[in-house]
Amino acid sequence: MSNPTAAMLVIGDEILSGRTRDSNMHHLAGELTRRGIDFREARVVADDRGAIVEAVQALAARWDHVFTSGGIGPTHDDITAEAVAAAFGLPIDVRDDARAILQAHYDRQGLELNEARLQLEGERPIGDYTATVKADVWIDGVEDGVRGDLREAALAGRLTERVDIDVGRQILTWGTGDLVFLNDLFPKDYVSFFSGRDDEYLKAPADALKLSWFGDVNVDFVWMPRAAPNRYITGERLSYFSVVEGRRVAAPPEIDPRERDSLGRDSEVALRVYQTIDGVEYAGYAYHGYDNQPSAVDPSTGEAYFPRLTSLGASLRRPVLGGIGNLETAYYHGEDASGTDPNRPNDQWRFLAGFEHEAATDLTLGWQYYLEWTEDHDALLANTPAAQLDFAPEEYRHLLTNRITYQALRQDLTLSLMTFYSPSDQDYYLRPRAQYRFNDRLSGTVGGNIFGGEDDWTFHTQLEDNSNLYTRIRYNF
User: How confident is the model at residue 115, as a pLDDT?
Assistant: First the structure.
């Protein structure tokens, strides 16, 4: 008689990005071996409901037992329990015996057990669906006054046996890059990111309808009824290089582009088709909408605007050489197919290759190579005004990134450094950070955003005056 078999599914964006080291797989392998159970497969997936559902179904069909690790907690991306239930077509609710264990725990500490401790605050079941609301309020010393941001206000659930729906304001993301985005054309907040706010705020919200179909091949379809641009640099908080003025500038006046906010007419659509086969994650992508940056200029008015953009792409991610490797590509087709209009971006091919692995205990290293190839570059140069030729993009822009993450003191202390260096632009961007977790609720972070380079007009050098150091205290409740 053969031994029982088992597999493990490790869940979490922080694992794939190298920010957190997984220590559960080693422990589980030892415990299973001692009990005579053959540990046959392990997978790592992101905090993505569709990816978790697909992986659980695939592993459960192949092995006797499936263990999951990660995604069980009080934050917005802890969706493991819900996704596992969806994988088996079962409802999920609070179990009386589990509640009794928690009640006894809090009784011993003299604390009260309430709804907020059982589920994410602002998340409520409505029949077979879940309503989620998440908002931020802060006091801003630069843009004087109290500010607020509704990050999530959505209703999600199972529409049919194979189709999930998520409608409302939500955070959308896909692709394989570590802070480098090719096929993820959903909005980003670079102002917050470069100012030292938590990394989660890089992903800006969008009002959207998302449908997910699970089968032999999984499909995500996203419709945004009006364009969702980046929260881009306007000159109000961060300075930038102006091609028109030929120097770094700041507000006033700030960039005020023509809006793409007509409901329906300015809509955007995105599609992802993906599947995991023999441990290799394959995905194809399509997008039709607008550039998230106001990258074009109307020469008749001098007004910046968001040009049309269509993209197609693909990616794969798999275990390799003791780590995880990824490849991704995308083709961007815009309004200037011939490259003869310097006021609008040329078509581009973009490529990304990455690899990360645990080089030693608690030390994770990651590398990426990124390439932008601007088509019809000769035509672009021939039609660019002589005064702006120096500022024209290179035909081939190369970017190298490296992430180093070290954890100590039982992983309560995390030290990290991510570097971006472009040998073609001769510029750089450094992101050092040290984070200490005092307890499950309180953590402190110090870090920096350091920019520099040769020419004022390249991507990172233009931000040199915005280099900063920051400190952050975070309390979760």
Answer: 39
The gap from C-alpha 460 to its chain's centroid, in whole angstroms, comes to 20
Strands (E) located in 70-217: 123-126, 129-140, 145-158, 163-170, 206-213
Name all contacts of 328-332 with Cβ < 8 Å and 24+ positions apart.
328/175, 328/176, 328/177, 328/182, 328/183, 328/352, 329/182, 330/182, 330/183, 330/285
Q: How confident is the model at residue 117 (pLDDT cuts 50, 70, 90)?
A: very low
Single-letter amino acid code for the residue at 142: V
Confidence (pLDDT) at 169: 95
- The 8-class DSSP code of residue 127 comes to T
- Residue 161 makes CB contacts below 8 A (sequence gap 6+) with 89
Cβ contacts of 284 within 8 Å, gap of 6 or more: 272, 273, 274, 312, 313, 314
User: Cis peptide before 252, with omega less than 30 degrees from 0?
Assistant: yes
CA 421 from centroid of its chain's CA atoms: 20
Please give the Cα distance from 424 to 428 (Å, whole number). Answer: 11
User: Domains (ranges, CATH) in the chain?
Assistant: 129-475 (2.40.160)
